[in-house]
Amino acid sequence: MASQEDSFPRGGSKKKAHPEKAPRQPIEHDNLFDIPTEEGPRKRKRSQEQAAKSKKPKAEKKEPRKPEAEQYRILSIEALSEGMRLLGCVKEVKNLELVVSLPNGLWGYVQATNICDAYTKKLNEQVDREEPLEDLAPLSKLFQPGMLVRCVVSGLNSSSKKKSIRLSLNPKDVNRALSPGALKPGMLLTGTVHSVEDHGYLVDIGVGGTKAFLPWQKDQEYIKRKNKDTRLHVGQYLNCLIEEVKGNGGSVHLTTLQSEVSAAVATEEQNWTLDNLLPGLVVKAQVQKVTPHGLTLSFLSSFTGLVDFMHLNSKKTSHYFQTQMVRACILSVHPRTKSVRLTLHSSFLQAGRPITRLCHHLIGAVLNDVPVQGFFAKAGATFRLKDGSLAYARIMHLSQTEKSFKPEKFQPGNIHKCRVIDFSPMDDMALLSLKTSIIETPFLRYHDLQPGQIVKGKVFALRSYGMIVKVTEQIKGLVPTLHLADVQIRNPQKKYHVRDEVKCRVLMCDPENKKLLMTLKKTLVESRLPALTSYEEAKPELQTHGFISSIKDFGCIVKFYNDVRGLVLKRELGAKPISAPEEVFYVGQVMKVTVLKSEPEQERMLLSFRLSNDKEAEDPAQSENKATIHVGQLVDVKVKKKTEKGLEVSILPKNIDAFLPATHLSDNVTNSQLLCYWLQEGDILHKVLCLSHSDGHIVLCRKPALISAVENGQDPKVFSEFQPGMLLIGFVKSIKDYGVFVQFPSGLTGLAPKSVLSDKFVTTTSDHFVEGQTVVAKVTSVCEEKERLLLSLRLSDVSQEDSSASSLSLLSQCLEELQGVRSLMSSRDSLLTQTLAEMTPGLVVDLVVEDMSSDGSLTFSNGSVPGLVLRASIYHQGGKVVDPGQRTKAVILHVDTLKSEVHVSLRQELVNRKAKQLKKDTEHRAVVEHLETTFAIASLVETGQLVAFSVTSHLNDTFRFDSEKLQVGQRVSLIIKSTTPSEIGLFLTVESSVKKRTPVLPSVTPESLGEESEEVSSLLEKPTLPIGEMVTGTVKSVKATHVVVTLENGLVGCIHASQILDDVPLGTQPTTRLKVGKSVTARVIGQRTLSTHKSLPISHPSNAQTVSELSIRPSELEKDINSDSCTQSSTCTENLKQYSPGQRVICFVRKFNMIKKWLEVEITSEIRGRIPQLLTSLSFKVLKHPEKKFKIGQALSATVVGPESSKGFLTLSLIGPHRLEEGEVAMGRVVKVIPKEGLLVIFPFGTVGNVSIFHLSDSYQEAPLESFHPEKIVRCCVLSTKDPILTLSLRQSRTNPRMKSKIEDPEVNSVKDIKEGQHLRGYVEAIKKLAVYFRIGPTLVGRVRYRHVTKYFVSDRTLYKIYLPECKLLSAKVLRVNRKQNLVYLSFLPKDTGKPDVFPESLGLPLRDQGKEVLSSQPKKKEKLEKEEEEDHGDMVTEQKEKQQESMTKLKEEEGVEPKTKEKQKEQSQPPREPGTKQKQALQEPSVKLEEKSANKGKRKLPELEREQEKVNKKKKQNLPPEEDDSGVEVNYKEEKEKKLKQLKKKQLKPTEVPRLQLSSGFAWDVSLDMLTPAVPPREESSDSEEEEASQATQKKKSKKDKELEKQQAEKELSRIEAALMDPNWQPETADDFDRLVLSSPNSSILWLQYMAFHLHATEIEKARAVAERALKSISFREEQEKLNVWVALMNLENMYGTTETLSKVFERAVQYCEPLKVFLQLADIYTKSEKYQAAEELYSRMLKRFRQDKTVWVKYGAFLLQMGQADASHRLLQRAFSCLPQKEHVDVISKFAQLEFHLGDAERAKAMFESILSSYPKRTDIWSIYIDMVIKYGSQKEVRDILERVVHLSLAPKCMKFFFKRYLDYEKQHGTAETVQAVKEKALNYVEAKSTLASD
Length: 1897
Known about the structure:
Elements: H1 2-7, H2 39-53, H3 57-62, H4 68-71, E1 85-93, E2 97-102, E3 106-111, H5 117-129, H6 139-142, E4 148-157, E5 164-168, H7 171-174, E6 188-196, E7 200-204, E8 211-215, H8 220-225, E9 237-246, E10 251-255, H9 258-262, E11 282-291, E12 294-299, E13 303-308, E14 325-333, E15 340-343, E16 366-376, E17 380-384, E18 390-394, E19 415-424, E20 429-433, H10 436-440, E21 454-463, E22 466-470, E23 476-480, H11 492-495, E24 501-510, E25 515-519, H12 522-525, E26 543-552, E27 555-559, E28 565-569, H13 581-584, E29 590-599, E30 604-608, H14 613-617, H15 620-628, E31 634-642, E32 646-652, E33 656-661, H16 669-678, E34 684-694, E35 697-701, H17 704-711, E36 727-736, E37 739-743, E38 749-753, E39 774-783, E40 788-792, H18 795-798, H19 803-826, H20 831-838, E41 844-852, E42 858-861, E43 869-872, E44 887-896, E45 901-905, H21 908-911, E46 923-931, E47 935-940, E48 946-950, E49 971-976, E50 987-991, H22 1011-1021, E51 1030-1038, E52 1042-1046, E53 1052-1056, E54 1079-1090, E55 1105-1111, H23 1114-1117, H24 1132-1137, E56 1144-1153, ...
Parallel strand pairs: 3-5, 8-10, 18-20, 28-30, 43-45, 48-50, 53-55, 58-60, 63-65
Antiparallel strand pairs: 1-2, 1-4, 1-14, 2-3, 4-5, 6-7, 6-9, 7-8, 9-10, 11-12, 11-14, 12-13, 14-15, 16-17, 16-19, 17-18, 19-20, 21-22, 21-24, 22-23, 24-25, 26-27, 26-29, 27-28, 29-30, 31-32, 31-34, 32-33, 34-35, 36-37, 36-39, 37-38, 39-40, 41-42, 41-44, 42-43, 44-45, 46-47, 46-49, 47-48, ...
Helix pairs in contact: 16-19, 19-20, 32-35, 34-37, 37-39, 40-41, 41-42, 41-43, 42-43, 43-44, 43-45, 44-45, 45-46, 46-47, 47-48, 47-49, 49-50, 49-51, 50-51, 51-52, 52-53, 53-54
């Protein structure tokens, strides 16, 4: 009891009556990890002793408070008690147990029966049934390592030496103190799933009388993120937030949304008490007291808690102060003392977030010289590891014994040797031990044991299955009975006794399952042969020991270590044949074997017991030496001999011969030559890699990159390990014209084709790579059959890290190797060599001028070292005139150790350089002084200090065009990476940006001194403004988004709109606050290089001007110059990363791009953004004309949607975060109108949604899609996101529910939304045999039986198709709802709907009762018809069969299966017929084809199903008696024909109602009256036709007058059809129609393409191909363009429906028959439009090789690159074009590229290109005209006027001037005012007068 109170003090003394009156100690602000003085503990101890002796109350009052070390003592097992609530972390999940990490390095265990009651019940059911339950999930599915859990101490086991903690996660134990009344919304609870219900889950939260429910929709995020898209299981542990409390806590609704759970904070309103306070709650707390041992916090207004030193934020340990507000998480609550412990670690401050770090990589490692961070009495000490993290050692682990412990050894800064023994996830600390026994133990964990290793242990126990050996306290292993000795022992207990020491060898170790198998066989334990632990180690001829595991008829199976086994065939068992192996050998016998063959991939090995005489006689040591060296091993070598190709070395210490090629001495090719030159015999090289070992020949490698790859396991050993996409380190093995072969450390080789060697154009492969060069390769293709690898060496494919980091790494490695060369040189005896080694860059020396070389360079001598050559180039003479023999000072730039030559400079700024402390990551301007192959030496402009930077950014970056190469004297911007010089005297830097390079200034010669040299010198020494400096300037010009300021010394500054005000009012233009001529004071915040009017990308690509970025923001001006004098340079990508989605930013309008449909904005001067049009507003008015709403320079507040780092801009939104979730309203653009179905809508970023015609409006329309068209903007509401294509709604009730508009047609989504008697509107779906299908919702179709369609009796079913066409809007009444079968029966009758009948009275149809009287003469027909009308056609079984049949029909149609017979086609074209009206088939047949074609267009096909149903009905009829099926009456053929004519007439009565049923001209070509008669049926169907003719005999004969009248009408109809055939707008509709057309016009490609499209529309791909082939044969060879059109169509077809091979074949044929360039360009367009950009790029590369003299190819490729956003590649392409095209084509090509830049790229660059052309060709009026057009389209009015003003002042021909004056006048009339128009007229008049004056003179 006392110990527990000591561990959890409440404050004050133990027995103080009034603890609230205890004197307060002063607040301490010491370092939290300082060690307390020794005086403090002595005083406390003395006071405690006095208090114990005194028994008086007064003495008790004077008793001091408990020491701080006691108050903040960390948790221990003794301090725990049952019922204590703790926060833990799941460390390990076992089958029936959880291992939980607790605070302060404690561990606990949770049994499976302590999860929850429901899970325990499931476990009991499992035991009772003895069968696996399907719904019982294992613990591994319920818990994951790292999960934070609330637990309760259920028991403490103190029976053994090691006490264990038993825990419980049962919510009833954790939340025991909670009551229903205490539950409040917002509370964060933990619970487990109790059961799975229909709409969610019942969750057990452990509160009696409360039911907790989690709906389905609230667990979706949890399921996707944490549960791997599977439903929750019973017993699943959840962190839940209470959303709603009902019935005084009787029912609560929960949510598991991570965003809400993570943000949950316990508040005072939730009425937490110390009794029910739960661990894991996040609270807002205030620091009350700061001590060296921890903090005291107050939270929830009245609670106090402690934070021990292990749970302070390590980054803020010394910055806590009283009254500071912090966020903390409750760790534990003691049940009796109510002591609360908290943590400030950030990983606990977001509830529900798992802990990611569960293990430490140094576990088991012994660490030397680890410094003490802090010591805590009775607790332990903290140590600081090398990686900066803290580690902790308990007091018991600080010394071997308690007596040997000395606290004074653990002062801060003292170093100790320790071992990492474990890691505590809850404390985020490694646990250490300083005990000597633990440090010296060879095995701490099972992971430390390796197969084949010798271990010593003690016998722990003897069992029937073997002997258990105790290796350490934590490790025990099993020696099976078979392995107790070389021979089998029957009584092991006689030989081995408990606690006997034994020497074993590890057979196999499984650390995960803690299983260890060992052997005691003496032969195996004492064997000196190599232990075989893997199949890879089994090399042929290797000899080793193994034991026989089984004996078979065909041989013996021998087993080795790590379960490696091999087969000894019968013939290899001995020198003599052995017929019965089991008689010679026995299981367990140890044998010496020789490896014959090994297949590691298949894990197979062939062995032999036969040993050759020479191998037996061979020295075992020598054999072992050969076997020890294997591929991938690191060794030390000694140089024996130098050869032309490399070094002959011997591997130490056993002097094994090997070879080290010269190219493998370094990753740097130049350094490899240096090392090979300076290495001599006897030199020792360390850490050399064995690259190959075959036939006794060992090849080594010293490349650091390859060695690092092997050490990190990034070298696939076998071919099967290679996977596409892998990045691997290798070296160039050989170079061919078609590519480069790359070899990897494993010896495998791959090919990098020429096309993927570089992002640049590769002319010669040897220009880019050399043999032996180290490269990074990306695996692009793996062919396992042929074992071939295809690789890519392009930088875009292989570069991963930032280019600056890789450049710095290459530079550091290069300079380190150069320093190594200097060390070798310093050990040589030569005076010259030693002098060269001592000379370093930056050293100032006195020299004597010797002579001047022919190239103008000077040579010097220092007189003391003969043979030493020092040289200064013309540039480095600095304009000084020196004579031979004159002494001068020079600074060393570089020492060429290969040529023994020193490069020096006489330039005064270098000789008299300033020594200044440089700051890391600051950017400086520098001048290139010396160039080497891989690095350059430069001098800082400000100080003259020498720095080095890498010329290459990657191992593969080895080639540069001449325009990209650096030059001496060129200016660059460098970022400092080292604050002290390297060993060779240079600071390390990286280049910030290639764009910041400036050109080489004019060279200065001694003869040209004077004013020019002074100007040049001023240019060279002209300083740039340091960042952070305050400057004053005058406003030169004011733009919309920036202001240009003129500074002193002619410098130019720029103030961006974002740097004018701190708080920018939205909608304003900040730049308008500044006026031209105004003086401003600003601070320099950066430097930017801009192109000037002299900087032209063609003629002067490198001329540029450095502009200072300024700021006049008040907050920026108030900053301290010293603190902000330097800023870090960052790339555009890094700048974009600082913006996260959802962040609000202020941006400024740049322009609205009408083509791309986005608003371009600027956030800062370097960061730009784009706002898609649909994200600019929710108002249609704004979206219709966004250019009117947003003014250039206007300030807007936008939300970051996401960075497009690859394109260098941010994507923003003006309407908040862009989320397409259910219920969200967003703006979309219609991309397709699907007839009779709905709309296809696209959103920003490519998301697509579908809108049904039932969701277009709250009131259905007759033609719902009429008002919609592509590109129309619509407001949509997201209904569902379950499918990739969203479900949307345009209903106003959804998109704008606040309007509360009237909903005339409510949404119908399922049968549940319908009630009987309800009135609905919908659209006709189809006319079926026994009912009309009526669609009343997106997924619901109702049925209207024919007796409920109309009140009339309709004997002719074709009238239904005329008056009930598809998609016709009608009203219906719900008669009956079959909810089980999802069937709805409706009625169209006027008495039900109150609407007119669907058939007009004008048709004269009899009422249904009268119709029955008409049929009274046919009683059997009447009875049959009524019976079928009463039939329920909605049976679900029949419906399913129809659906199956329909899917089969569709499948056949898609696969191109054609009908076998024409009769089958006729059957498919037959319409549904009403039973009893079979005699009308002949009259319906001609028109049905048209009806079917019109009805089925764009819809799913129904005739197949109906035809199957007709077959069933026909079989039924055949089974009837003859009198029921055939009336036996014949009908006159003329009457049949006349009736058909009458039927045609009826179709023309109301053409406006059903226009799609009108006869088209595709019906027939040779039209005559006979065409209207039915076709003669086939013979096999004669019985059916006879039945029909007999049934027609019952019809009443017509009078002669009626017949004549109908005949006249038929002739009129025939004339109308003939006129339609002659209509030019007529379109063919059948294959026969197209055949007639192409026969009449065989050379028309349009007809052939329409014919192909006709077949493609029916998914008949092969027929479309056949048509294309016919076209190519039919079109005349003279019609080249027509043939090309067909070839293009065929390539399009193959691209969409064919394969790569078929497309390639068509393309090759097209190139043979057509002009090749046109075919190439067409295929490139096809690839681009189908988004096959890789294929398009490869095709353009082919075109550049084949048509390099054609400018069209270059222009097309440039446009393609700009469309892909590859502006830099387009610029390089233009440079290449100049070298390939004739000189006369250059101007046109530049003009074309400039126009492309206007359209797709940078307008400023385009202007610069035009200016470049016009500066050279000022009289090219065509270029001027194009330039004016482009600026009018893309520029501002001021820019247009400036150009026109320049043009009209040119000296051109009068005709040209007239043209330009007219253009100027037209522009001002359109965009200007009356004054500007008059000004242009006056200028024209002045021009005419000036010309007249000249003429008269």
